[in-house]
Specification:
pyridoxal phosphate; seven-stranded mixed sheet; transferase; aminotransferase; Aspartate Aminotransferase, domain 1; 2 domains; 46% helix; PyrdxlP-dep_Trfase_small; alpha/beta; PyrdxlP-dep_Trfase; binds pyridoxal-5'-phosphate
Amino acid sequence: MEPDRAAMTVMGRLVLDRVVDRTDRLPDRPATSSVSPDAEAELTRSLPAPPPAHAGDLGTLLARLDEAADCALETAGPGHLAYIPGSGLYTAALAEFYNRAVNRYGGITSVAPAFAAIEESVIRWMAQDVCGLPTGSGGVLTSGGSMATFTATVAARQQKLGEELGDGTVYTTAFAHHSVAKAARLAGIRAAHVRTVPHTSDLRMDPDAAAAMIRADRHAGRRPFLLVATAGTTDTGTIDPLPELAALAHDEGLWFHIDAAYGGFFRLTTRGSQRLTGLPEADSITLDPHKTLFMPFGTGAVVVRDIAALHAAHTGTGDYLQDSDSTNAIPDSSHLGAELTRETRGIRAWLPLHLHGVDAFRNALDEKLDLAEHVHRALSGIAELEVPLQPDLSTVIFRYRPADASEPAAEEADRRTRHLLERINAHRRVVLSSTRIDGRYTLRLCVVSHRTHHDRIDEALKIIATEIRSGTEVPTSRARS
Ligand SMILES: *Cc1c(COP(=O)(O)O)cnc(C)c1O
């Protein structure tokens, strides 16, 4: 378990060679699993054997890992346009290797104060420079957006409800990520008290409807305490009217959370900052560096206007920690969230940010906005398609246009759209995903990966156009097979 210098080097090389090779081949790799369904079933059956008592061979084990990694959507590659892509910077992986090897304790500042300062610099940049929150703001790096929203929900609950949770009520829309309702449930809020505010025809939260709902609920004895807006919905990338909702939350005394897991980092771009006005007025914001900052999965963030609110909800200690010094200017991450022992999560963001410079991230995000506008223009020119929304961010939605306004025609369009998705993805050069928008089956093309450029998007458009052409020619019975 403790290899010598020479062995460490040999082992490191083995891993590095495989990783470099994989990363280098990403553009040529299939966008879906490169393993046949049969081989995939065999692999997933054979892999979970218990560990042996005797030592194994690193080369053999790495080969196993490579096989297992192949048996997956190629989420790191340029063709991944499904869900919200998370591409994973090579330099973040290098930073993380270093971080894991030195293994500094990340839960309490005094144990590794300079590492804590590095992490704090990343959080401060996210809170103040990216989101525009004032001095006094701060936050904590989480494992993802869901944990970030949970952390914010607990802080809001603590500040607004204290220990009487029974009547606490939360407001969001049908397009909120499901982690909002889940966070409320985990925070002890009744499911019936997570209220769905109606949206306007452009899929944004209706502030007037929200105001009416909050007032009616309060009149009925509920305690409205949290308004959750989305800055870039997962379905369509739509941004709720943040300034109006901030004003409403302020007037009604609600905590204002913005789920900017997808959209937040677009504030680095000119277009993004124009569309994300109102972000600086939030009490708390969810960010997902493992989406729009191209970090490896497991990197989320919650930033808050007043760091004391996070502290008030999450502080905790034990006698065994009596020697740790908590008088640092940098707060212990363990007092800002649910975790105690953890890695210094900020290292994996700090290294790429300083190595590439913020402009590299800004330009990459700008490119995604350009590509989405390009996709929107191209798809809007296809007569068979409905392309209902101008994208706020980098997601374009589309579906077959129904023949008429009847229900059967809508169902037929849904069916054809579902088959279109299968046929596009069968090329294995790009992967798109689907959702339902106001009941209609809808495809979404989401550009987020730092590896997706114009060439792959043009290829995707060509595939879509080809499949629409052949879909029009192929009779229904054959399209179904
Ligand atoms: C992805 C996403 C989440 C959930 O974040 P995880 O990192 O997957 O936990 C929450 N909200 C929005 C808008 C998202 O796109």
